[in-house]
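Students often ask why we bother encoding 3D structure as a string. The short answer is that it lets us treat folding as translation between two languages. Here is a chain of 478 residues written in the first language.
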Amino acid sequence: MFLWIRHCVAEKRGTRNEERGTRNEVDPRSLRTRVEIFRLNRAGMSVVTLQVGQCGSQVGSELLTQLWKDACGSVLGLGSKDREYRETSLERFFSVSSRGESVARAVLVDMEPKAVRASVASARRAGWSYHSHSVFHQQRGSGNNWAYGYGVAGTRWGKDVMAIVRMQVEQCDRLAGFLPILSLAGGTGSGLGSRLTQLLRDEYPKAFIVNHVTWPFNSGEVIVQSYNAMLSLAALHDAADAVLFHENDGLHDACRQHLGLARPALRDLNRLIAQHLATVMQPARPPTLPFYSCDPLGDLAGSLVPSPEFRLVSVQAVPELAEDIRDFTCYLWTSLLRDLTTGSRRCNSMKSPSHPSCVSRLLILRGKDTDSAEYAKLAAPSSFPAWVPPERGLTVWTCSRPLGGHEKSVALLTNELPASLDDSLRRAWDMFGARAYIHQYIEHGVTEDDFLSSFSVLEQVLSSYRHLATSLICDWIS
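And here it is in the second language, the structure alphabet:
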């Protein structure tokens, strides 16, 4: 009755082994072979990060800095568990140069040089670096036009960027997939980011693609942001395995209420996004494994995405604390989980408890005594549609190692509808009906039929999430 779609990770790994010519050269019955297979299964898989546009460059750079500092913060005197954590984290996101320096498995892409150069300089100050050939930029931006980023920049330079991606992939012993990071508001991140995601899907059909997108302020950052966001989401819905999202309005509120910032800047919002993503992306143990997840993107998508109809995943994490009060904070699982499920931090599905509006959840606990955490509320059957098996509603990953200077921390990923999607789609329809700014998109190859097709895709997404409790089970059974 329930179709839980998982990609065949074992098949992908087997294909890579066959390509290396190792499968038929060993006796599968020997102890050495069994030990080697166990070791290979524990070996971490690498993630190639694509930072597209100004927002993608800034968020990606901050994320990689937090990941690197967390992994390398205490190198001397590492115990076996800490060593495993460090090696898994670094293998996941960094390679080692001939000089012994950490080099990010990342590609920086923007149509203007300023943000890219700033990210490269910031990485060097932090202690790691980008590969010199992994940076691509031009001298002219996309003018906040999705059509220019997708049709013009994507056509002219898509192959060049993919050649850089291929170089990064070839340096991975075992590729887990790709993490494109972009904004939905502008032209380069949304337009070129969407095109690159589609090119990744075409060239690496078995690799996992988990996008992260930043939703613009509802008050408006760009006059055509509703167009850009809808065109992007429709493109990503077909190409990505999952789309993680943060909404700028929620991030702004969190910075004011929890970090004590009267007027948060964009760098504060980017830092908070990176903190949340680091809580998700650093090594953790799924419930069925005695070691860290080898395939982070595959395990994440397999835990959260039951069907191609449901790919949108919100991300929350606690604690969110100003640095000057961390030393005076008492970390308790009860208070952290309460903060995560109440007040302004609540995910959208918890704001309408009368009917199920989320498909699945992934809870990640980091710190001591994770076994003592009480999260029954998150696993309540009433939170999910009736067709979701109880064991599939909530997945829990754990890690005994603290993260980011916090004794304990929690991340919650929820497959649910973004709070802003309905309003953004309505505004896009209103602008399209008035033919506002349509000529700017037609000029660069986007037709009116492309708009209508994108709107139709997102109308179907809205309908699917809104009717979780009723119609979909009949469709899935048939």
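Translate back mentally: The CA atoms of residues 67 and 278 lie 6 Å apart. Keep this in mind for the problem set.
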